[in-house]
UniProtKB/TrEMBL annotation:
GO terms for cellular component: cytosol; ribosome. The lineage of its organism: Bacteria, Pseudomonadati, Pseudomonadota, Betaproteobacteria, Burkholderiales. NCBIfam families: hemK_fam, L3_gln_methyl. It is an enzyme of class 2 (transferase). This is Ribosomal protein L3 glutamine methyltransferase. Its EC number is 2.1.1.298. Residues 120-203 form the Methyltransferase small domain. It comes from the Bacteria. Residues 5-82 form the Release factor glutamine methyltransferase N-terminal domain. GO terms for molecular function: nucleic acid binding; protein-glutamine N-methyltransferase activity.
Amino acid sequence: MTLIQAIEAGAARLQAAGVAFGQGTLNAFDEAAWLALWQLQHPLDTLDEHADDPLSPEQAAQIEALIERRITTRQPAAYLTGEAWLQGVPFFIDARSIVPRSFIAELIAEGSFDAWLDPSSTQVLDLCTGNGSLAVLAAMAWPEVSVTGADLSPEALAVAARNVERHGLQSRIQLVQGDGLAAVAAQRFDLVLCNPPYVNAQSMAELPPEFRAEPVLALAGGTDGMDFIRQLLADLPDRLTEHGVLVLEIGHERPFFEAAFPQLQPVWLSTSAGDDMVLLLTRDQLLAAI
């Protein structure tokens, strides 16, 4: 059996088992490829190079066992491997934090909102930092800024600390614990990145097992998904500098957002998943809506 044959067999098993995707991959083939390459200790971008490699019986059995574990536990693949990737950057992950998948990551990498940032920006806040991936990517994208990663969960911050250290950014990223903006006291920021808990109650009740394996604290946003966001938008103007900007991810909750905040006119940023996932608000827009 070759590697590609093992991946195709694994993908067929994942598809037949009805597992859910969306936590690093979007389909059965990519999920099986991830697991197989990780099991063989190959980089995830080397499938073409290794596709026709023959597998020993032991290697084939190990890949099959990992696929079986994915099916029987319904744990996200990232939790099984202890690793996730955003924009080609590797991050440690375990069940203390949600699997990193924010679309803000691609916007940072592509410079999609750089035009809204003041050239003198020096202070960035990654609110609800989780495993710290957006904080790390922000520090990499803007070498001149200092980044604060804040989260309510001490467990998630422990994961984030590993990733900050992994990428050698201890001098550039500060991690703080607290509830929302209370975590950063009276500090003011030029840019706030936030991928908050925004899943509405009905959607929470319908989540597949893979997503229910993640911390509820990082997902559940109340009846309409806007509980955290309401408090954030009320408090944020005092925490932004004069030309400060908020980049906020809300997933599929745009109808709930617009119902909750009809007075706001955000800029909707285009992502690979569409134009309704991430929005931008300036301090002036927030003040005008008060």
